[in-house]
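Re-running the complex after MR caught last week's input typo. The corrected sequence lines follow. Everything else is unchanged.
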Amino acid sequence: AQSVAQPEDQVNVAEGNPLTVKCTYSVSGNPYLFWYVQYPNRGLQFLLKYITGDNLVKGSYGFEAEFNKSQTSFHLKKPSALVSDSALYFCAVKGVTGGGNKLTFGTGTQLKVEL
Amino acid sequence: NAGVTQTPKFQVLKTGQSMTLQCAQDMNHEYMSWYRQDPGMGLRLIHYSVGAGITDQGEVPNGYNVSRSTTEDFPLRLLSAAPSQTSVYFCASSSLHEQYFGPGTRLTVT
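Corrected-run output:
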């Protein structure tokens, strides 16, 4: 079975500082990894994905994530946080083999960026 | 191109009532799915479909039925609502590597 862990329920960052939202995963074989963001009372929006190739992937709104196979991690990062980045962030995984398009989501991390 | 649409946005049911949550997509995606979102539990897969006429159970299917008669539509039915089904429900459709989510339905069962 595949699973995702987001160890922090909430991350607080000052505007302008770098941010990291952590994610580790478990899956049989190679993973496809995703980050989604949810603003209040909205659906989930796709941020970025790792499929294959370069371990550092860049996504929307200046976010990036680094795939680390040995640590089974896919942490979300941004060099300089904005107040408008405050939202709920979800990491998700699916296996390259088997499972079809079934995504497994983490429990989410609330990011709060303060002035 | 509307993407994924869901109706209604809000619904209050009494225990034992039935209802159908509607979901439609205009992207011609074969794969569609239903999730429920509960605080501290992330999104959990209820049912999914890999094409018209084909559905399967996800992680938390009990109390829910689905059908897929067309590529565009994937309704979720609650046959006899229970307070444990109070949640926010999201429908999604998927291309090869990306899922597109609808705006959600907030359901309260009293």
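None of the earlier attempt is carried over here. The CA atoms of residues 67 and 74 of chain A lie 5 Å apart. DSSP finds no helices and twelve strands in chain A.
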